[in-house]
């Protein structure tokens, strides 16, 4: 049952809030259990903990028209909180979930204040050093919970931003984001973590033993800590469904975007290659590289999802959904052994599709999803791989795709060669703004088209 909890409408100053610290390397969310006890210095220390390289002396927040207001004292902090409570109340009255309080650290030249008051941000206990694995002794209620604190870039961050466990009752489902070969993905709100999640729900008719096996195979996800890989928050079984909770990406997946310009695709490719290189370094093959498993957000981040860490989960889904994935390398389609090079092929075919806005084999009509009858994919095994038209794309891009889609796996670039490819080095400039602006513009276009459609 989908429930959007709109009870408990008004916010009190004793109610926990989430403060989102906007840093150059990304957003850091902190749960503040008792905001009325929070003082300016505590917050400044928390900011310095997440931005140790900067000398932060103040921070800013945005008012309703987007003007930045500076906070340098306890008085100004109180004014900010009071403004935020009003905004939260308004959002709730309009049936919306309150956004976190966003603050923008400001770097100054003077040396920092020491932590004389002690950090008060997030007082939720965090046993077992950031990760809690709750496995009921008995599986009689058929509910199996495995959860973890939020993973962030440093151990310090983990301490500050640690979160409780995720279980089914804490999740309020909102809207359906999409449906794939095996599951349905929902946008949802995690009440304790006070954050929006994407929850993939997959019906699986399997024994409790297999459920346990899947849960233990998924544990590797806790080790994944990369800005190019979707953050995993936890998974649980309820009856015959597994729910996998991950970070929500507000731009969605790349398969729903129209033709993507090369300078944007270049930046996206850099993140995808970095994400894969990271997975490979953990000895994980992605096995399902395709545009719908590349997610973007309005901050310009690109992250990979749905990599096959659990053989048992992949096998259990495959029993229900029959077909062969059209992005698979020829050696996989023909049932041969495969390795990292098969992921590299899938990168090539995915980026070719994104550049052309059509699947590169015109004889293969992918109507819904990427699973096809095996015979229809035989052309990928038999024919020379397609090549990007040289008059429409740069030489570097054409070469990159051609190399990734070499028929012989060994001839495709190895991880180091991928990172060193001129197409990747050219766009490896850390410019997230390009992707961010493109995502925002596409979302805006989509919204106005939907609005026109309604008229
Ligand atoms: P497959 O099941 O083979 O992976 P798929 O990727 O198309 O196919 P799902 O993984 O079920 O299907 O995802 C369905 C859709 O949900 C995606 O296409 C994407 O638009 C959306 N989605 C998935 N995960 C997220 C997320 N973390 N944040 C935002 N949207 C997401
Ligand atoms: Mg997917």
From TrEMBL:
The protein's UniProt keywords, in alphabetical order, are:
ATP-binding, Kinase, Magnesium, Metal-binding, Nucleotide-binding, Phosphoprotein, Serine/threonine-protein kinase, Transferase, Tyrosine-protein kinase
Q: Which cofactor does it need?
A: Mg(2+)
Q: Which residues bind ATP?
A: 200
Which residue numbers delimit the PB1 domain? 18-108
According to the UniProt entry, what is the EC number of this protein?
2.7.12.2
Which CDD domains does the entry link to?
PKc_MKK5
Domain (Protein kinase): give its ranges: 171-424
Task: Kindly state which reaction or reactions the protein catalyses.
Answer: L-threonyl-[protein] + ATP = O-phospho-L-threonyl-[protein] + ADP + H(+); L-seryl-[protein] + ATP = O-phospho-L-seryl-[protein] + ADP + H(+); L-tyrosyl-[protein] + ATP = O-phospho-L-tyrosyl-[protein] + ADP + H(+)
Q: Name the InterPro entries on file.
A: PB1-like, PB1_dom, Prot_kinase_dom, Protein_kinase_ATP_BS, Ser/Thr_kinase_AS
Which PANTHER family does its entry note?
A: DUAL SPECIFICITY MITOGEN-ACTIVATED PROTEIN KINASE KINASE 5, DUAL SPECIFICITY MITOGEN-ACTIVATED PROTEIN KINASE KINASE 5-RELATED
- What's the family? Belongs to the protein kinase superfamily. STE Ser/Thr protein kinase family. MAP kinase kinase subfamily.
Q: How does it assemble?
A: Interacts with PARD6A, MAP3K3 and MAPK7. Forms a complex with SQSTM1 and PRKCZ or PRKCI.
In Swiss-Prot or TrEMBL terms, this protein is called Dual specificity mitogen-activated protein kinase kinase 5
